[in-house]
């Protein structure tokens, strides 16, 4: 049985947390989004900081490494209104996130080194300014819903 990624009350709390981040352009070391839902065994490691458990509303920063265990999942909501669901037994790094909300411009890139993720496009991907990488593939995203799985030397991509 699949676990629900978020409930009505968590969406209200998340909306309030997310509104705080949406006001100014993002610079190195600043938050690029927040976790919208987290199931057990999900951690984040910001650059130069200790690994911490992710909980509802945790800030996610540029170059953060997100790792999930066998029963873990993490839903990240980015400032450009895109989102990424990191599945169980996965490792993802937010390689790049530059976003100017006034102009709705910027770039984002993430690397999946193992496991599964689902990316739901936002303002940056509508402009073709989002990229997902694995050890064997680079996937340019243009305003869509993409599922990516990487195991050992194989990457599978599902669009829509």
Task: Supply the helix-strand structural class.
Answer: mainly beta
Beta-strand residue fraction: over 45%
The helix content, as a percent range, equals 10-25%
Overall spatial form? globular
Low-confidence stretches: 1-28
Write down the Rg: 14 Å
The largest pleated sheet is described as: 13 strands, mixed
Would you report the number of β strands? 13
Number of helical regions? 2
Distance between the termini: 23 Å
Order of helices and strands: HEEEEEEEEEHEEEE
Task: Return the average pLDDT rounded to an integer.
Answer: 84
Please characterize this protein's 3D structure:
The longest helix has 14 residues, at 8-21. 11% of the residues lie in helices and 51% in strands. The chain is globular, with a radius of gyration of 14 Å. Residues 1-28 have low confidence and may be disordered. It has helices at 8-21, 123-126; strands at residues 31-39, 42-45, 52-53, 59-61, 65-68, 73-78, 83-86, 91-100, 105-120, 130-134, 137-141, 145-151, 154-159. It is built from two helices and 13 strands; from the N terminus they run αβββββββββαββββ. Strands 1, 2, 3, 4, 5, 6, 7, 8, 9, 10, 11, 12 and 13 form a 13-stranded mixed sheet that branches. With 160 residues, it is mostly beta strands.
């Amino acid at each position: 049985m699949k676990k629900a990624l978020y409930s009505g009350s968590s969406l209200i709390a998340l909306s309030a947390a997310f509104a705080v981040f949406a006001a100014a352009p993002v610079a190195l070391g600043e938050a690029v989004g927040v976790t919208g839902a987290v199931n057990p065994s999900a951690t984040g490691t910001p650059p130069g900081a200790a690994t911490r458990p992710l909980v509802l509303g945790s800030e996610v920063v540029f170059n953060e490494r997100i790792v999930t265990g066998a029963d873990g999942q993490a839903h990240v909501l980015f400032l450009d209104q895109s989102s990424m669901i990191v599945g169980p037994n996965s490792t993802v790094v937010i390689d790049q996130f530059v976003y100017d909300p006034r102009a709705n411009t910027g770039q984002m890139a993430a690397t999946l080194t193992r496991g599964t993720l689902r990316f739901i496009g936002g303002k940056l991907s509508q402009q073709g300014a989002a990229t997902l990488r694995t050890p064997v593939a680079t996937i340019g995203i243009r305003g869509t819903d993409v599922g990516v799985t990487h195991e050992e030397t194989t990457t599978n991509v599902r669009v829509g």
